Amino acid sequence: MKLPDKICLASIFIVGMILFSQCSPYAGKSVLHIFFDGVPETDSTSLLSTDQGGIQADSLDYSKGILASVEPEGFIHYPYGERECASCHNEQALGTMIEPQPGLCYICHEDLAEQYNYLHGPVAGGYCSACHDPHKSEHEKLLRYTGEALCFYCHEAESVLQNEMHEGLDGMLCTDCHNPHGGEDKYIFQ
Ligand code: HEC
Ligand code: HEC
Ligand code: HEC
Ligand code: HEC
Ligand code: HEC
FRET pair for 29, CA 20 to 30 Å: which of 65, 105, 130, 164? Predict the structure, then answer.
């Protein structure tokens, strides 16, 4: 066989492997791992090392075609938009997570406990998704609600507004004074 034919056959073989890998994710990954050293093992946490600048653009996204299509609209959480469902969900049981929050979020995001002396209740408790939609949102920062509505989803408006500290706040946002994640002390000031 002439050399160009060999190259041609070899590329058909490789392309075939890649195509095959789309249907059989786990097999595909290990095959590709042999070809290119850059492809991580299927251990999902290893895909997501933050010191690689967050998440890796995974061209071998194995959830394509298996899961419902994602319509781009509003603000899309990067891994959701890339259909990297398995970076958060167990593939075999979509309803379950690979790890509970907040650890799930800290796979890719900075640990808020390292940034603040004192954490806001729901942050400490791992209720990130009470404020952020983990998939997409019509609001910036994937927030479920904006303005006071976000805070009054949990805090009783009446009691907060009765507090003399909150007199004459017209036009001010709760987050002008309070940090939604944490702060120096329990009042989580900005
Ligand atoms: C960044 C992590 C993350 C990614 C990526 C992700 N999810 Fe989720 N998903 C969650 C969390 C957290 C919940 C639970 C939501 C809650 O607390 O209300 C959830 C809930 C769900 C639910 C239950 C119904 C609902 O919407 O609450 C479905 C179905 C689902 N996800 C499908 C998907 C699919 C399909 C993909 C990929 C296209 C995906 N998820 C990607 C984190 C993620
Ligand atoms: C697989 C990695 C991964 C996981 C897990 C993950 N994120 Fe993200 N998230 C990203 C990336 C990548 C971005 C885009 C970062 C950027 O643009 O700087 C992002 C952005 C965000 C943003 C900012 C969106 C914006 O519009 O600026 C929020 C809020 C967020 N993530 C919340 C969460 C929460 C809450 C969880 C846990 C339920 C979570 N993330 C889990 C990868 C991840
Ligand atoms: C009480 C509601 C609330 C909770 C709970 C919460 N967040 Fe946020 N988060 C916010 C708000 C509000 C912003 C927007 C802050 C801003 O724009 O200054 C934000 C912004 C972010 C951003 C984007 C930061 C940036 O600078 O763009 C990330 C990432 C994030 N949150 C992750 C998390 C994670 C991870 C958790 C859980 C450990 C969490 N959040 C829990 C309200 C919340
Ligand atoms: C998902 C529910 C939830 C949301 C949404 C929420 N909080 Fe909280 N917040 C809590 C919990 C729980 C505590 C802890 C209460 C405790 O320890 O007594 C807390 C405590 C606080 C405290 C300290 C109060 C104290 O006496 O310890 C402040 C200030 C605060 N939140 C402000 C806000 C602001 C501002 C927002 C909107 C950006 C907000 N919260 C949204 C649940 C929430
Ligand atoms: C001008 C700054 C400022 C703004 C804006 C502000 N707060 Fe406060 N908040 C404070 C101060 C100061 C305290 C009291 C701290 C203390 O008692 O030492 C406080 C206390 C709190 C507390 C704990 C005491 C209580 O009343 O339960 C909560 C919860 C709280 N704020 C929520 C909110 C919410 C929700 C909003 C938006 C509607 C908001 N704050 C807007 C400054 C502010």
Answer: 105
